[in-house]
Amino acid sequence: MKNSAKQQFTTLLSHADSVLLVGAKNWALDDAAALLALQKILIAQKKNVVVVAPDEIPTEGKFLAGKSEISKSLGNGKDLVISVSTENAKIQDISSERHEDSVELVLSVKDGFLSPDDVSFRKHAGNYDAIVVVGANNLEQCGEIFSQHAALFSDTPVINVSVSPANEFFGRVNFVDAAASSVCELLAEIIFENNVWKTTLDAETATMILTGIVAETESFLAQSTSARAFELAAKLQELGAAQSDVIENLYKQKTFRNLKVLGRLLNNLALDRKHQMSWTKISDSDFELIDATPDDIDGWIDQLLRHINGADFVAMFVEHREKSVVMIRLNSCEIDLSELQKLFPEKFQTVRNGVYFEFGKNSISEIQAPVLRALADLQERRLRIAPGTAIEKAELIEKSDDTPPRPATINEKKFNPRAPENVPFETTPNFSDAHQPADEKIKTAEVTVRSSTPLGNPSWLKK
What we know:
inorganic pyrophosphatase (n-terminal core); about 475 residues; single chain; 18 strands; Diaminopimelate Epimerase, Chain A, domain 1
């Protein structure tokens, strides 16, 4: 099945002169790197290639060549389509009148009526021999690129490339392999098995593909990393892939704002060991305080998941000015994505290694409690925990016998001073004590007590 899809993939593209490459909403760096690499491979074969995606390329991929050629909208900018809704009218005739500086279209209505609201405009999408959609579970995840040009997707052969188990096999050709570590791994397999494609693979393209593999496998530390990923990475390096540049840009070059965002996320990190779930949050006011934006989150949720023991998933609550989202990354293959979808079906999107919920203009304070309760209920069913068990935060630093005790604060120290039995020193009376016998020594002691002590002064101390 997989080999058949590979063959159809290369055959369809080899016969196509004009190819449209499409990314999905909330796409991963792996998807973007695969589209950029495929664009270079096809251009080297003298094909006309257009790359579009609803979102910007992820921040950590800004160093990749060709990123500026990715457009957010589909259209060549020259041809304009005027669309008129005929829901309330039946058009009898269409004519045009040309003037020196304008053109007027006249629509004659037989029945019903038309209004200016029935008219819309868009750029002409152009004509393509094939469309390649990368990283989308369905065409709706391509956003307006699909919704505004549905006829184009219907009339043109679509190649669906994905490694997601939630993929809906919407293409004429479905190159889907959930066992693969990344989309770039799938693309590398095709390139190395096709002599024509392999000859077009240069160091720059190899770096793009290696970037996708390294990003998606979290530098080969993710559980989903396949043995094939290591083999292909070695071959890419032999062809000149700049592994040091990839590591430098993905893991070492963090902006000060990236680090401040990480600090907030770590400060708010919580773990419930009984429900085996972890979560954190960052609010709009947090972003304002540290002069950052949601773009500066920079994949930290995947890093958190890797370093937290005892959690099947991590949920990150992110508050934008116009919406709040919950990103969930899974650490257990036993969690069914469809079960997560049932929690909030109208707000659900599948992303790589997890899900994404969008809650409109609701604040984090409004959505956090119900979302955590829904996730806890899911875990109670999975782990056979008593229904309604309270969500409890655990200490994230495990204590051991070798761990030195933490110094107590003023509020934690036991404050119970007693009157001293033996004073620390003795003194003879001075001239002010002349009324006392000369041979009798006076016992004295100095005691200092903070006036701000929350428990007050001891009863034996007299003012």
